[in-house]
Amino acid sequence: MTDTLSLLGELDKRSREIFRRVVEAYLDSGDPVGSRTLTRTLSEKISAATVRNVMQDLEHLGLLDSPHVSAGRVPTQMGLRMFVDGLLEVGDLNETDRQKINETLSSNTADVGAMLDRVGAALSGVTRGASLVLSPKYETAIRHIEFVSLGPDRTLVVLVFSDGHVENRLFKPPPGQTPSSMREAANFLNALIEGKTLAEVRRMMQREIAARRQEIDSLAHEMVESGLAAWEGDDVDSARLIVRGRSNLLEGGDEDGLERIRLLFDDLERKRDIAEFLELAEEGDGVRIFIGSENKLFSLSGSSLVISPYMNADRKVIGVIGVIGPTRLNYGRIVPIVDYTAQLVGRLIADRS
């Protein structure tokens, strides 16, 4: 940010206005901006030739670029960063957007996952981008666990938490499981887990299985390990990332843009580096904007990411809300939407706890 702001400070008033007008016109239309177009919007009456000279100077500074053979200019990634850091005018959240988000969160359901899923749908609808919601890890004490057979190779493990929250996971059970071994595994776990969080159960389980090996047969032993494994590893982090509105990213894209979007979809399908996504927001308070290759998660797709953390009642970051789209985002409108939604979700989660 310091480099772009110092560069902005070196521009004279005319160059700064022309640069700002180019970026704003590009963000509005997505098209290269020509000198004749700019002369009609500038506060100072100057010739198109003078505007072209200034635009050439801005291009030499790395702030603008000439795509293909077009006479118009578009901002570079560095130019967009400078605009966002020093010239972006963030508007207030308009009442229509506020109402749509509030309506989504008006339900009194205790299911935080369902609420966050609706948040994601609302964000993608309001912003016309794709929304990303990283849900909090659930650390409430467990009340009960149950295994439900859905067939020879599919079993549902159900966790009921002390606050009434319920989570389910499908997994493939070890071969040879019977209803009695499933009941035995559930009874074994229920005798140990009450009052403990899922993280605490994972830490103690290997020790308890070894100490009580004589109390549980081998089938039930395997069932216990497989059932708990359904909450471990990459699958858990993947389940925590809710993505909505991917189809919005396909609207109006050129062939190169569609290829970048396909790369982005691949990243989102694999849901890689979920921990990094949270770290991006934990590094600073409030809304953060990542443009193009600055975005560690989706750098190949040339996308922009606007994210904000949300916090629990103890002011601890527990999740992230964001919008991803082309670098030609309406940042001034998206920033207050993301900020408002993150604060609202934090308050609702704090109230539930």
TrEMBL record:
Domain Winged helix-turn-helix transcription repressor HrcA DNA-binding residues, every copy: 11-77
Record GO biological process: negative regulation of DNA-templated transcription
GO molecular function: DNA binding
Annotated function: Negative regulator of class I heat shock genes (grpE-dnaK-dnaJ and groELS operons). Prevents heat-shock induction of these operons.
Pfam families: HrcA (PF01628), WHD_HrcA (PF03444)
Matches recorded under SUPFAM superfamilies: GAF domain-like, Winged helix' DNA-binding domain
Record keywords: Repressor, Stress response, Transcription, Transcription regulation
Species: Pontibaca methylaminivorans
Boundaries of every Heat-inducible transcription repressor HrcA C-terminal domain copy: 115-335
Name of the protein: Heat-inducible transcription repressor HrcA
Family: Belongs to the HrcA family.
